[in-house]
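Go through this one:
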Amino acid sequence: MTERSLGQDASNFRMPLSFLHSSNRSRFVVIGLLALGAIAVTYYFHGILHTGRAFSHLFYIPIILAALWWEEKGLLVAVFFCGLLLLSGLLLRPAPVSFNDFFRAVMFLAVALIVAHLRSRISAAETALKARTMALSDKTRKLQCLYSMTQIREEPGIDMDGILQKTATLIEETWQFSERVYIRISLGQREYRTADVPPASCEQQFCILVHGKPNGFLAAGPLGNPAPRDWASLAQAEADLMTEVARRIGRLIEHENARKALVDHKNSLEIQVEQRTAALRQSNERLKQEIAERVDAERALADSEKNYRHLVENANDAICIVQKGRIAFSNQRTVQLFESSTQDLAGFPLSDLTHASDREHVSDIYARRMKGEDVPITYSARMLTRCHNALWAQISAARTLWYGSPASLLIIRDIGSQLQIEAELRQAHTMEAVATLAGGIAHQFNNALSGIIGNIDLLLLERPGDLVIKKYTDVMAVAAQSMARWTDQLLGYARGGKYCPEIVCLSEFTAATLPLILSEADDGIEVVTDLMDGLPKIQADTVQLQMVLLDVVRNALEAVQPPARIAIRTESVRITQERAVKGADSAPGRYAVISVEDSGIGMDAETVKRIFEPFFTTRFQGRGLGMAAAYGIMHNHHGWIDVDSSPGRGTSVSLYFPTIDMPLPISETLAVFDLV
């Protein structure tokens, strides 16, 4: 709110009381007219009409106006009307002066006193309000000046000279008195003023302090020629504004000096930065190159570590770290091998994973290796899984560091299957050697029997009617035929003999051979069959195939005691690569299978391993050539025999024949051998 607006509001506030400030001449005229009117009315009612009524309210108007206009002096008007009231009642009315007349006179005086007092209070309040209004207007004017000064500083693109010049003009415009003044800001050799300084000017100066030291002054002086005393009082009224402006100019100069110092410092810093930037740029290029090389090295290291971890985690061998006799690290294969989990193996003692019979040996090698002694790098030992299952393992060990402490790196390989294959291979070599020997013997026997049977036939031709000779030659012929069948079994085991391959359906062949099987079964032994319809056909020699089936069934019949049950079943199975592990000529593909199951006493594992050895038998009168011959015949047909048996559970013998849709090896097609 500006000074002009505040003054206008004060004038509006005083307008209702303006009638109180009329001139004294007008006031006397009004009071006189009112007094004459009151006298005339009183004379009319009391002197002419001779009534006792008094219109006292006609006297209140001049009494109140007099008290309002002249305050205490207006009481004289009230006294005059009191006397007029009492005198008119005494002289003009027929009745004497009553108590009411005196009461009205007293009320005239009381009203006059009250109005005079209220008028004095109103005058005092009006004076105080005017003073406060003037003070507030003056303060608002000064604050507006300071605010405008702040806005000048915030104008875009303005410099220090422009700020000071506009500040001087602003002070001149803000000056509250009507006298023309000039404003001058002097800062050393620089000066900013609103007008030329008149000679012999009596200006008022206010010091400008910069960092507590005088740096110039702010001055205000009259452009006219007022009395010096009047000017001093006028300038003193603006002293607080001029002092605050001088203080703010000092602060502004301080800020400007600080800004210039900052700009100079900024420029010097920019020069230093430019000088150092070149050096830093070179260093940065070298650092980038080093970082790139390091990133490449770290990436290569990470890739190497990832590949190493992938290799370790997906290795077929169990890899673990043993530190202080306990498992510190294990890969997935270790977890699988020992039937455990990574958390369970962590910190587990190595000795508890070693079979009791080899525990001392493994612990001794580990302790000597950790001492740095020369010990075998690879050795075999029996281990125990967490489920207490034993397994043969090949252990390759090396000394290493694990998190800065000595440890042993173990690579453990399950060699149980390898040992089994080696044992089967040794057995196959043994049986191959025995088969070769049996084949040679069988051929020699066959040659000798040919001579014996031929001479018997010649003897019978020369002595056809000699019964004595025929009696002995018949015995000799029966013995020779028995020896011939024995020789056929030896040749079958030796994979020799005369083969006539043809297309055969195992289900039909088994059904045709069933009468021969039933003829050999004793009473109380039940023979049941489950023959698959549409069984894929095979290529086989029916004579040799019948020999194999009868030998297997005879073994089953001899293993049971009535009442007993023997089941013969045919089926078609597909052998995967994982299952194609039995027999030297086995291969993945579809096979026709004939199985013979009995409910006999069964065999232990050691007996099962030897049933295909020539001359091995568990019977008192057996020759041990039936299963050996069956083994040779099946091998020559690119099949194999699977035996599943355990004591007290019976025995199951399965004969696997490749179907005709499976290609046979060229070098191993069925051959034809003649007896010589």
Summary: The longest strand covers residues 390-402. The chain has 17 helices and 16 strands. Residues 1-22, 664-676 have pLDDT under 50 and may be disordered.
